[in-house]
Each structure stands twice: as C-alpha cells, then as structure tokens.
Amino acid sequence: MVKFKLVGQTMYGEVLYFTRLAVPNNNGGLRFANVGLIRSFSPPDNNILWASQMTVPLCWNTEAILVVHVEDILSVVAVIPYVGRLENNPNEDAGEGAFFVVEQPGLSRHTGQVDEQAEEDDDVEDE
Asked: What is the pTM (predicted TM-score) of this model?
C-alpha cells in the first residue's frame, strides 16, 4: 500500500502493478512515462480524523483504479482492516471496506538528493 499525491490531495491505495506508457512529448514525438496502476481508497474521514486528534486516518475502499506517475508516490504505508465502531456514532460499525492507515516512518521515497551539509558533518566526526 502506498501514500500518493493526486491533484494536490494526499491519497492512499494499493499498487496493482507498475508499467511504462508511451505519451506524447512537446516535440510531437513520444516519450515513456513510468506509472503505477493503483486501486484507491477514499480520502481519510475528516470527522474521525479531527475527533481522534489527527491519529486515526480511516478510509474506505473505493475500487477506483487510477494511473499515477511514480514520482507522485510518497511512501509505503500499512493499511489495516478496521473493525471498530465509529466515534461519531458508537452504535454503528465502520462497515465493510473500512481501513486504518498506519504511516511507516523511514520508508519514504528517496528523491536521490543528498544533504551536503550532513555529509560534511559526518566527515568531521570521522576524523
């Protein structure tokens, strides 16, 4: 499962597979774009998110399939089935397809950029 950006909104989904698509470039030719086909989840429920002090991002499976540029994939996340009651209505189950998202620190996509200052600090400590 991954966290990704789509039209400025943070979303979650399951990567079905990655592929390369031939798309038109500015010169009238073609170039390859690296994309992932992702089964998306709904954005986190804002009412539950606020009621939980921003700790319970609860989403539902939408079955929508999206084509997402791989550079828009931000990180790997765990998506765990949620079987509890809803905060705003304790008598109602969250329902089929409800998932609790757990961000996994340290698994963010590396951009390939290196912090030169941090490298210099490491060199000084090694001496």
From this structure: 0.69
3-state secondary structure of 44: coil
- Mapping DSSP onto H, E and C, the string for 73-123 reads EEEEEEEEECCCEECCEEEEECCCCEEEEEEEEEEECCCCCCCHHHHHHHH
> In the numeric block, which tokens belong to residue 52?
């939980």
Comparing CA positions, the residue from 59, 12, 15 lying closest to residue 38 is: 15
The whole-angstrom separation of Cα 74 and Cα 22 is 23
Give bridge partners of residue 65 from the DSSP assignment: 39
Residue 100: pLDDT over 70: yes
Mean pLDDT in residue range 34-47: 91
Nearest CA to 61 out of 11, 92, 94, 98 is that of 98
